[in-house]
Amino acid sequence: MSFVGYATVPGGWNRLNYSRMMREYTDELPLVELLVRNSCELCEQVTVKLRVTQDQGQLYRLVVTNVDTTRNALPPNRRHLTPGIWVNGELWYTGDFDPQKFTDKLKKRYRVINHQ
Questions:
Q1: φ and ψ at 101, to 5 degrees?
Q2: Is residue 10 part of a domain?
Q3: Secondary structure of the chain as H, E, C letters
Q4: Are 7 and 65 in contact (CB under 8 A)?
Q5: pLDDT per residue over 45-96, tens digit each?
Q6: 12: Cβ contacts below 8 Å, ≥ 6 apart
Q7: Whole-prediction pTM value?
Q8: Which of 5, 11, 84, 103 measures 20 to 30 Å from 70, CA to CA?
């Protein structure tokens, strides 16, 4: 399974570095961060759903973070929630999700339009 990107913080995690890293992704579109683990079938399914949803509307930037390989780059409260969908630093879903409800909520909350 290949990932869109990895969220890492050089030198390990700390709140200041992590918040700076998150801000650099959120200038235009909301940042959707998906936390996954190795050998997690549900994580793979959620990754596919998010990629398809992203390709259909370009409503957000997607970063997929594997908590098994980037453990020190994540705040401690995020390491155990997989699959976990975070939008601009706020936990929206754990486990599976409904792509249509996710898209509707994203459009309403962030007033985003399709960027195709």
A1: -65, -40
A2: no
A3: CCCCCCCCCCCCCCHHHHHHHHHHHCCCCCEEEEEECCCCHHHHHHHHHHHHHHHHHCCCEEEEEECCCCHHHCCHHHCCCCCEEEECCEEEEECCCCHHHHHHHHHHHHCCCCCC
A4: yes
A5: 999 999 999 888 778 999 998 888 876 666 666 667 789 999 998 999 999 9
A6: 72, 73
A7: 0.69
A8: 103
Q: In angstroms, rounded to a whole number, what is the distance separating the alpha carbons of residues 73 and 6?
A: 10
**Strand pairing category for 61-66 and 31-36:** parallel
CA distance 90 to 79: 14
Contact residues for 73 (Cβ-Cβ < 8 A; gap 6+): 7, 8, 9, 12, 13, 18, 65
* Cα–Cα distance for residue pair 64/49, rounded to 1 Å: 12
Distances, alpha carbon 20 to alpha carbons 17, 66, 92, 108, in Å? 5, 19, 21, 25
CATH of residue 72's domain is 3.40.30.10
